Predict the structure.
Amino acid sequence: MTIALDTATLLAQLTQLGIIGHDVGGGRTRLAFSDADKQGRDQLFAWMQELSLDIKIDYIGNIFGTLAGSDPALAPLMIGSHIDTVINAGMYDGCYGVLAGLAVLRALRQAGIVPRRSIVVAAFSNEEGVRYQPDMMGSLVYAGGIDVAQVLDVIGTDGTRLGAELRRIGYAGDLPPGAMVPHAYLELHIEQGPLLEAHATQIGVVADLQGISWQQITITGVANHAGTTPLAMRHDAGWAAAELITQVRRMALASGSTLATVGSIQFSPNAINVIPQTAILTLDMRDPDDQKLSAAEAHVAALLQTIAAQEGVTIRSQQLVRFPAVHFDDALVAEIAQTTAALGFSQRQMTSGAGHDAQMLARIAPAAMIFVPSQAGISHNPAEYTSDADLIAGATVLLAVVQRLSM
Ligand code: GLV
Ligand code: MN
Ligand code: MN
């Protein structure tokens, strides 16, 4: 049976959600459990109500909208992603997957079709992990990978306690995490990288996702006068940070597959004529091969010792995140590939470079992902862009796979 997607509503909702948390000069910021996140959630909640979905919220604020199937004995099919953003984000990351999920349910409603299996659209809390670590937090909690009490106590980069903020915005729900174990989990997402566009391919069939390691590194030296302290007598936390940044790039280049990024750094006292006393920086490392990622972590640990000895500073490292590489469900990946081929879209099997909620749901259910191209591979940036045609192609594949798995 052919069921039509209401693509105009999907595209309009993406734009409408993208306006919430708008930054002066472009982009939007909806950090997890902030006022802007609340506004985005309220909008999503209203759209779920318009579709008469059964809406539930769990202890960590994950939002689930369910279209009931005709056979309550069958485990539900779950489709989802996230609507929180990084700082000054684009409008597609995460939001596309959630709103395409709603578009699938709208198409079924409009066609008057009741699937056999219930279909749940999920918006997982704090996927981005910018304000509170770890990232993919809502889905990790949902999959039982971390205790909910532990994450409610997490202190954010702004000094706030997560649990207090969740309650403040009104999204501390009463559904225990993991209450609905899905038959399968599907996540549609923009690629956030350059490969699909470079190969003029419409659909990415995601077979696996690389391992992720995050650490916060604190370097402590001695603040001193920039004009009077000979170079050889300095204990310069700033120089040590710079050396580390340079060396991790060298390491990553030599490995051939490891990626290493220092995305945040703070000097103290941060003054033009004072040698930095402290530098606090973050290191994000990723590799599809877990052994290589572990080797990179060991290399960094040794580097920290060398640099500390060289400059006479102390260096402490705190692990914030360590997620292993994930291999998605072979049968579900094959199902997506076959459906994409049957619809006549070009496709490419690929590894996800970004972290996604699907990697956590893969712990409790067969999971897989569908990617669509990102123009110039730009993401986590207001310039993030995917053409309407590509967005519609991805939603079309999602709808077809959902039909096959839920009817
Ligand atoms: C999530 O966006 C990530 O950092 O991969
Ligand atoms: Mn995302
Ligand atoms: Mn993201």
